[in-house]
Amino acid sequence: MDIATLDFDRYRRRGYPEAVFCMGKTLAQVHAIARAWREKSEQTDQELGTVLFTRATPEQLTAIRDELPGVFIDDTASLAAWPGEPPAPSGGRVVVVCAGTSDLPVAREAALTARYLGREVTEVIDVGVAGLTRVLARLDELRVADVIVLAAGMDAALVPVVAGLVACPVVAVPTSVGYGAAFEGVAALLSMLNSCAPGVGVVNIDNGYGAGHLAAQIAAPGRHRA
User: Fold this and answer.
1) pLDDT of 37-60, one tens digit each?
2) Residue 3 pLDDT level (bands cut at 50, 70, 90)
3) Where are the domains of the chain?
4) For residue 224, what pLDDT band results from cuts at 50, 70 and 90?
5) Torsion on CA atoms 26, 114, 178, 165, rounded to nearest 10
6) Residue 194 in contact with residue 165, Cβ under 8 Å?
7) Fold type of domain 90-219
8) Quick one: pLDDT band at residue 105, thresholds 50, 70, 90?
């Protein structure tokens, strides 16, 4: 291919498969990449793992569907996965929390990434600190997690609240949700970086894929709590 060098060996080398970031790619490029992945899978006995296509537009998702029979597509997360059936869960449990429904696209991207990397995943949706009783009512679900991914915009105040209530690591994802002074996620990012609760790691703004991948590695077999 003269437009991309696909990492077909990543699953063997790292234990985690390739991901294709679709933002900025043309429809022709997405078609070609998806087709190349299908053709490689037909030509080799090598285990390639589940390829993820992230940040895809509706038109790009249609192109992927045209090239990959049985592909899984989630419109909320703007994500596609092929083969469409996720692997059997192994390792620890990942709980993905989003402060508000507006944060759900990023949270869902994280949840699906962790799920397709082989982890058991639970979602806890719309439990921001504007109604603190909502997250307190879900503590039993949070406290069985081996790692929590938490997506939040605006002031991101939910991060230290949750991190102070659980024993596991928290992977914080700032989202670009909020009014003007949220600065498209910069305010949430700085709030998370300045969290007074220990055990919090922060990924880039709106990077649900990166958060889900990190959580899957933290909860990998042999690393999670017994």
Assistant:
1) 999 999 998 889 999 999 999 999
2) confident
3) 9-82, 90-219
4) low
5) -170
6) no
7) Rossmann fold (3.40.50)
8) very high
Instruction: State the pTM of this model.
Output: 0.94
Tell me the CA distances in angstroms from 211 to 22, 56, 188, 215, one per residue in order: 18, 18, 15, 6
CA distance 214 to 203: 9
